[in-house]
Design a protein that fits this description.
mainly alpha; rod-shaped; Sec20_C
Length: 194
Amino acid sequence: MAAPQDVHVRICNQEIVKFDLEVKALIQDIRDCSGPLSALTELNTKVKEKFQQLRYRIQELEQSAKEQDKESEKQLLLQEVENHKKQMLRKTTKESLAQTSSAITESLMGISRMMSQQVQQSEEAMQTLVTSSRTILDANEEFKSMSGTIQLGRKLITKYNRRELTDKLLIFLALALFLATVLYIVKKRLFPFL
């Protein structure tokens, strides 16, 4: 029958292997993650939790190793603890890479949002230019039609001015003829002998 310490050591080793595999799976999920930033952050949080559990189990194993009665078993377990610590250190580097990757992804998404806003502003500016161009073309067409109306008005005014001069001349001639007729009649009536 195994001693309680041996059972505890075996359980710690099994849990360390289990957490190690879970951390590896989560790191692979982070590498494969192409989803939104929230999914990447959630995976990153899970990795941190598993690392905490892994550290705790390694500390438990180390404590159990120090409590071993036989020096050979103690050294063997301490060597195993050191191996687990080294592996965890390499995984911590992967965790920091995952955090860096998460930060880079967040920055890229921010840049993508900014570029999207710039494109939208450019589209709005283009739409404003199109509207302004249309307004200018409409104003130009209106100006052309007004220009034609103004030229027609100028011709009519010139024609009316000539007509007015002609009318004044005709009125003057008609008045002169009337006066000449009146004078002739008066002369014939008053001075019939002349």
